[in-house]
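Lab notebook, bench 4. Still working through the backlog of constructs that have no structural model yet. Next entry is a single chain of 423 residues. Request: give me the C-alpha cells for it.
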Amino acid sequence: MEETKAIIINGVKKKYRLGSIGRKTLQRDIQSRWALLRGKEDPNSRIGADSGLYGQTFMALDVIDLEINRGEAVGIIGPNGAGKSTLLKIISQITAPTEGEIDIYGRVTSMLEVGTGFHGEMTGRENVYMNGAILGMTKKEIDERMEEIISFSEIGEFIDTPVKRYSSGMFVKLAFSVAAHLNSEIMIMDEVLAVGDMAFQQKCLDKMREAVEVDGRTILYVSHNMNTIRRLCKRCIVLNQGKIIFDGDVEKAIALYMDRSLGGDGVNIDLTKLNHGWQSKNQKITMEHLKLVDKTSAVYEQKEPLLFDLDVQLKEKLKDVQVRITLRTDTDTGLGTSWSNDIDMSGLEKGTHVIRCKMDLSTVAKGVFYISIGIYQKDEIGREMMLDHVTRAFRIEIPGTLDWETAAQGNIRFPAAEANVVS
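Model written out:
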C-alpha cells in the first residue's frame, strides 16, 4: 500500500501552551517569564493580548487521520485558526506532533511563510545551494537546474544579492522557483502565492499543474482563494477547529466551507460563534449579533437596500468609527467594499449598542453574495485600523434577470461614464 502513498497520518494531535514561550529570542523568553513570575505585564506581548491566557492549552490539531496518494493535488481549506498551517508544518517536519504518527514517502519542499528556509545574510544563489543540499542533492545536480531556477524566479539581476534586501514578492518568486525545480516528490504550499503579482501567480499555478500531471509529484495547497483551489486540485480537505470535517470533491468542499462560515438562520446571525480573528481579542469594540431589518429571508430585489442592525459591545468610548461592508461571490472573490460614514461613539456608555447600516444594492447583479463585516477606527493620520472583523458573516441572494450580461460585464455595474468631444 505504501508504494502508492505519499503521506500517511494516523491519530495526529498538536497541543500548544498559550503565552509560554515563542518570543523569537532567548532574551525575550526570559523577560516574558520573569514578568509572569512577578505578576507583571509581559513586555513582549502584543497590544491587547490577554495575559490570563498564560499556561492554558490549545488543541491546534485534534486526531487527524489522513492519506495522500502520490501524484495528487490536494487543497486544504478552512477558517483562520482551523489548523491548516499547523498540519503543513508537521508534514514538513518543522514541528513535531504531540501525539500520533506521520509517514512521509519522498522528499519534501515547502513554502509556508515568506522567507522560510532562507538565510538573510546569504545571497539568493547561495540559498538555492543550501536548499538543494538539505534535500540531498549534489552540487552538480543543483548547477544543472540553477539557470532554470533563476529564469523562472524573474530576479536574475538580484540573484547574487543577500536575500535580506529582497522584497516579500522577490522572496516568494525565488522560494517557489526553488521548490518547483529542485528534486522533491512532495510540494507543500501555504497561501504565500498571494504576495506575488497576478502574472507570477498564474505561472506558479501552471507549474504546479505540470508538476502533478507530468512529473507525478504530490502537492498540498492551502489557500483562501477558492478559484485557485478549483483550478489546481482534484481533491479538497476542509479543516475546522483542528478536525477534518470533509475530504473529497472540490465543489462540495468549497460549498461546505462557505456555508459553515455563516451563523444563525440567515436573518438573525450570532456573530459570537463566528471567527473574528486575533484582532478581536480584548479590543475596544466587538460585534455580537446581526439582524436583517424587516426580512424573513435573505432574498433581496435589486432596487431594495441592504438594511441591517449590528449589535456591538462597546468597551471604551470611541470616535471616528466606520463599518466596512464587503461583497464576495460564491467563489470567494471580492467584488467591492462600501464604507460607512464616521460614527461618534464617544458620548455612549460602555455596553451593548445597535448600529443600523444601509447599503445600496442597485448596481449589483443577480446572484448569491457573501457579506463580510468589519469595524474600523481612523488613527491620527486618517488610516482605517481594524477593531473587529467577520469574514462571510452572512449571505444574501438577488434573484431574477437584469439588463446586462453578468458573464461578460461582471456582477457590479458602475455609474455611467461621461465622454465629451473636445476637438
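Notes after review: Residues 198-213 form the longest helix (16 residues). The domain at 268-409 is CATH 2.70.50.60 (Coagulation Factor XIII; Chain A, domain 1). Flag for follow-up if needed.
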